[in-house]
Design a protein that fits this description.
Layout (H helix, E strand, L loop, with lengths): L4 E6 L2 H11 L3 E8 L2 E7 L8 E6 L3 H12 L5 E4 L3 H10 L4 E8 L2 E7 L5 E6 L1
Parallel strand pairs: 1-4, 5-8
Antiparallel strand pairs: 2-3, 3-4, 6-7, 7-8
Pfam families: Glyoxalase
InterPro entries: Glyas_Bleomycin-R_OHBP_Dase, Glyas_Fos-R_dOase_dom, VOC_core
Protein name: VOC family protein
C-alpha cells in the first residue's frame, strides 16, 4: 500500500491552482469538472508520477471550520520537503510569499512556514 493522493482544503480552486503551480512550481496533473467543483491535482515536477496533492474545495462546513481553526492556531496543513530551504525561502519571498516563520533550525531539520493565500499555512522542511 502507498499514498497516491493527499488533499488540502482551499477557499478558491482557481486561486489555489495558480498559487501551487505558478508560485510554488508544482505541475497540474488533473483538472476535471465534477459538478460545481473540479478534481484538481498537482504533483512535484521532480516526481510527476508520485503523490498527488488534491486542491479540495472547503465548501463543507466541517472543512471550513477545520481549516480556519488550524490556521488561527498556527498549525501547518501540510509539509513539503526542499533540498535547500534558504534558497527556497529566498525564491518564494521574491515571488511575494508571506512567511509566518523564517527558516529555523530544529535539531537535524530546518523548517519555515508560509501562508498559501488559500486559507492554509504550509511548512517546508530541509532534512
Amino acid at each position: 500500500m502507498k499514498i497516491i493522493v493527499t488533499s488540502i482544503f482551499v477557499e478558491d480552486q482557481d486561486k489555489a491552482l495558480a498559487f501551487y503551480s505558478e508560485t510554488l512550481g508544482f505541475v497540474k496533473k488533473h483538472d476535471v469538472p465534477t459538478g460545481e467543483f473540479r478534481w484538481i491535482a498537482v504533483v512535484s515536477p521532480e516526481d510527476q508520477k508520485g503523490t498527488e496533492l488534491l486542491l479540495e474545495p472547503n465548501n463543507h462546513p466541517a472543512a471550513k471550520a477545520y481549516q480556519k481553526k488550524i490556521f488561527s492556531d498556527g498549525i501547518p496543513a501540510t509539509m513539503f520537503g526542499v533540498a535547500d530551504i534558504h534558497a527556497e525561502y529566498t525564491r518564494l519571498i521574491e515571488k511575494g510569499v508571506k512567511f509566518t516563520m523564517e527558516p529555523t533550525k530544529m535539531g537535524d531539520f530546518t523548517i519555515a512556514v508560509f501562508d498559501d493565500t488559500c486559507g492554509n499555512l504550509i511548512q517546508i522542511i530541509q532534512q
